[in-house]
Design goal:
The protein is an alpha/beta fold. The strands form 6 sheets. Strands 13-14-15-16-18-20 form a 6-stranded mixed sheet. It has a 5-stranded parallel sheet with strand order 2-6-8-1-9, sandwiched between helices. It has a 3-stranded antiparallel sheet with strand order 10-12-11. Strand 11 (about 405) and strand 12 (about 410) form a beta hairpin.
């Protein structure tokens, strides 16, 4: 089987975000595709990478493609809920909200059932349905397979809730998968996203935290025809807890690499176009140097911001946009790393709040990131802390994925943006801490010298002279140190002033931008008011047109109903007063037609419905002349649509029966025409003739209406 189109999934069943921005991971997709569809034994894998590097996008894209491009593996995807906290930025593990195992097991089971059903019945909508709609859809299909799916759908909830042991609830979910695979003759491709939450975020019904990862991996070993893929953003935790000694020979691990420079260039251009921005020629290379190819950082740089008017015409504008996202609290990248600190609150013991030793080590490494690798001894010497304490803190930082380290040195800081964030977040507090450390060191040094007084070469010297000499040296050193610190503080103040100036410039730019927006909104409101008035006028006109169309359709409908045989019979000659009226305005429309040729005609359709035409004539001297149909209504004071409709219907029957190609129709009246009636005459090209307008006065003897 060849490779499908990685860039155009036919469905978005698994709710992939920004599907048009998938770049740089084609080789990974091909690798998964080859491994899954080969005829080798089942293959299970753990994909590790930090948050927001594209793991979820990669597997959702793979599931969407598998859904339509093959028929053997049912793609199933479930993501464990991300952590939430009760107390904003002041968080520890105690403030973390845990999810109940029973709720997670129920959500996982129903997600797998509906996704499996959508794949088995080739219905993408079914894979996203709620439970009631899914049940109705399965009942409509009504075959053996749909009945089996209904059985699982109606029984899974009771089975999970009735299972007392929390770990066994996941066993129910996997037995459910075994059953679905058995009845559908399909295999499974299962993705469990954010797997670290099984160790950190689940609890029993009493609220007691329970790590479930090991139990889950014991269960899947007893499930046939299942390929399991898990992903995790807390790399160290997943590596040691999931890829431990028990499972290292059962699961293969892979690390998701950042985008290469070409993919970074492509993604940057996509975001520029998406947000309506323009960039300079070398922007892709500079974006890669700033972000290291991290897709989320690229997205943050180019997205629109309330805090800065971003421009990408040169490197300066790009750096300002990057700093706005990574160095201030309102920035998205700043918030990304703040969240990472919160998620590791248990390991850090709150040190990110009061800038403890862990943060001081990170800050030092950020300042000297160009000199990495850095030995533990150098860090301990610089911070004046025992080596054993530094080694313990290094293990914590390594577990939190802040650094990579060997047995005796820090080998790297894996994220290129992390040092920039740390220098911005902890600069003020750690500078203050360094001053306190210097003062404490001076006090300790003084105490040591006083304690060693008796053993020193100056022992014969009087104590007061010795103290004066020692204090003089210390004062000189302290004065020199103060000068150095003053220079550093001046440089720091100058940098702050420059930043404040930039902030003021940004503020002015934002104010101008806001003013321009307000003007545009005012103009837009004016246009909207005008458009609303026009819409009201158009609505009135359309209502009139609709009413006229309804009337016309009624007449047309009645005419089209005339089918089959029709009888046409000529009645008596027209009444004397009608003849007199017609004669009265000769010469006129009827000058070519002798009055005596006019006949009263009654027309009936096959249902016996009667329509009448007062006068029908054709010239005897000129037989090729058109027929003339005349309807005379002088006894009605108000001519309504119904009267006109009967005349139109009679004309249509006559034309069809006599096969008349050309005719003239006249409607003679003495009273008044309603507006709809006049419009209907005009629509059917019937000439209305008012006797009053012609100046003809009509006297009609009282009699019965015809």
């Amino acid at each position: 089987m060849g490779y499908p189109n990685w860039y155009a999934p036919k469905v978005n069943v698994y709710q992939e975000d920004l599907p048009d921005f998938f770049v740089g991971q084609e080789e990974s997709l091909q690798g998964y595709w080859d491994s899954l569809l080969s005829h080798h034994p089942r293959w299970n894998q753990v994909l590790l990478s930090p948050r927001k590097t594209g793991k979820t996008t990669l597997f959702k894209r793979l599931c969407n493609i598998l859904f339509t491009e093959q028929k053997l593996f049912a793609p199933l995807y479930f993501s464990f809920p991300q952590p939430t906290y009760d107390m904003g930025n002041e968080v520890t593990d105690q403030h973390r909200k845990l999810a109940k195992i029973v709720d997670i097991a129920l959500g996982m089971a129903f997600t797998f059932i509906r996704q499996f059903a959508g794949f088995a019945f080739r219905n993408p909508e079914m894979a996203m349905m709620e439970q009631m709609k899914l049940e109705k859809s399965l009942r409509k299909i009504n075959n053996a397979l749909s009945k089996d799916f209904l059985l699982y759908l109606n029984s899974y909830e009771k089975k999970i809730k009735d299972t007392p042991d929390d770990y066994q609830r996941f066993s129910v979910v996997f037995r459910l998968l075994n059953g679905l695979m058995s009845i559908s003759k399909k295999k499974c491709f299962v993705v469990l996203d954010e797997i670290q939450e099984m160790d950190l975020g689940l609890c029993n019904d009493k609220g007691e935290q329970l790590p479930c990862t090991q139990a889950l991996f014991e269960l899947y070993q007893n499930t046939d025809h299942l390929n399991l893929y898990v992903t995790g953003s807390q790399v160290s935790l997943v590596y040691y807890n999931i890829l431990g000694p028990k499972h290292r020979n059962r699961l293969e691990s892979d690390v998701m690499l950042p985008l290469d420079p070409l993919a970074t260039q492509e993604l940057a251009q996509k975001f520029l176009v998406y947000h309506g921005q323009s960039g300079y020629a070398e922007i892709g290379k500079d974006v890669y140097s700033l972000t290291g190819g991290h897709p989320y950082y690229i997205q943050c740089i180019f997205r629109k911001s309330k805090h800065i008017l971003k421009k990408f015409n040169n490197l300066k504008g790009l750096k300002e946009a990057f700093e706005a996202e990574a160095a201030i609290e309102e920035g998205s990248i700043y918030d990304y790393w703040n969240t990472h600190l919160q998620e590791n609150a248990r390991l850090l013991n709150g040190e990110m709040q009061n800038t403890g030793l862990c943060m001081r080590i990170l800050y030092y490494l950020s300042q000297h990131r160009q000199e990495v690798p850095i030995s533990f001894k150098r860090i301990a010497k610089h911070l004046k802390v025992k080596l054993e304490i530094v080694e313990g803190k290094i293990k914590i930082l390594k577990a939190c994925d802040f650094i990579k380290a060997s047995s005796d040195e820090v080998t790297s800081m894996p994220d290129r943006v992390l040092p920039f964030f740390l220098l911005a977040k902890y600069k003020a507090s750690l500078l203050e801490g360094s001053k306190k450390t210097v003062r404490q060191a001076l006090d300790e040094y003084a105490s040591k010298n006083l304690a060693m007084y008796r053993d020193s070469p100056y022992a014969p010297m009087p104590k007061d002279e010795f103290m004066a000499m020692w204090l003089g040296k210390m004062q000189t050193q302290w004065a020199e140190f103060q000068k150095q610190q003053a220079k550093k503080l001046q440089a720091h103040d100058a940098a702050l002033k420059r930043q404040a100036k930039k902030a003021r410039q940004h503020e002015v730019a934002l104010q101008q931008h806001d003013a321009a927006l307000e003007e545009q909104e005012a103009v837009l409101q004016q246009y909207q008011g005008k458009i609303t008035e026009q819409e009201k006028k158009v609505k009135k006109v359309s209502q009139k047109v609709n009413s006229q169309e309804i009337q016309l359709s009624k007449v047309t409908h009645r005419v089209h109903q005339v089918q089959g045989k029709m009888s046409v019979f000529f009645g008596r000659l027209m009444e004397k007063e009608t003849l007199d009226r017609i004669a009265a305005f000769k010469p006129g429309p009827f000058s070519q037609y002798p009055v005596l040729n006019f006949s009263n005609v009654n027309v009936t359709d096959e249902h016996g419905h009667l329509c009448e035409i007062d006068g029908v004539s054709q010239s005897k001297t000129k037989p090729k002349m058109p027929y003339v149909f005349v309807e005379v209504k002088t006894r009605q004071k108000l001519i309504i649509t119904k009267t006109v409709e009967l005349f139109v219907e009679a004309i249509q029957i006559m034309v069809k029966q006599k096969k008349i190609r050309q005719y003239h129709a006249y409607f003679v009246y003495h009273g008044k025409l309603t507006t709809p009636a006049a419009q209907l005459l005009k629509t059917h090209k019937i000439q209305a003739i008012s006797l009053a307008e012609l100046g003809i006065r009509v006297k009609i003897q009282p009699g019965k209406k015809r």
